[in-house]
Amino acid sequence: MSKRSRKAFTLVEILIVVVILGILAAIVVPQFTNATQDAQAGNLKAQLKSVQNQIELFNARNNGAYPDFATDGWTTLISGNYVKTPPQNPAFPGDAAAKASISVVSGTTRGSASTAWVWNSDERTLYASYFNETDGTVTGTATD
Q: In the chain, which ranges are continuous DSSP H helix?
């Protein structure tokens, strides 16, 4: 009897490897899809805090006055060297100009479908549209 050497994998061996890779992919892929959204939310939270701190610094240096976002947008903060460029809201759809847009609201409004940033004049707080500050998540819709 001559000894035969195997030169290929059997169909069963290949199927087992494919099943194992499928199981691993099913476990790993959802982890990476959430990682992008988590990174975006973290970036947005840090950016919001930084810009809000600059707004409060402006307030302290200007005898309790806040920037006039309704008239000047980001111009007052940029010309006063509080921010270098208009902040970009990565959760807001559109181009760079849309991601830097800002509007002034009052009451309990905390977001807008038409502008990336919202300055609530009653609360004197800056909010990012499409970002839920309560749980720190990026949403698919503007928050109110």
A: 11-61, 69-72, 75-79, 96-99
Residue 90 has pLDDT above 90, yes or no: no
Contacts of 47 (CB under 8 A, 6+ apart): 87, 89, 128
Q: Give the DSSP letter of residue 84.
A: S
| For residue 49, pLDDT beyond 70 | yes
- Model confidence over 91-144: pLDDT tens digits? 888 899 999 999 999 888 888 889 999 999 999 999 998 888 777 677 755 554
CA neighbor of 100 nearest in space, from 84, 111, 89: 89
SS3 129: coil
Q: Tokens 């973290």, residue?
A: 42
Question: How far lies 120's CA from each of 35, 43, 85, 86, 92, in Å?
Answer: 30, 21, 21, 18, 18
Determine which helix (DSSP H) or strand (DSSP E) holds 102, and give its type and residue range: strand 102-105
Question: What value, to the nearest 5°, has the Cα angle with vertex 35 and ends 33 and 39?
Answer: 130
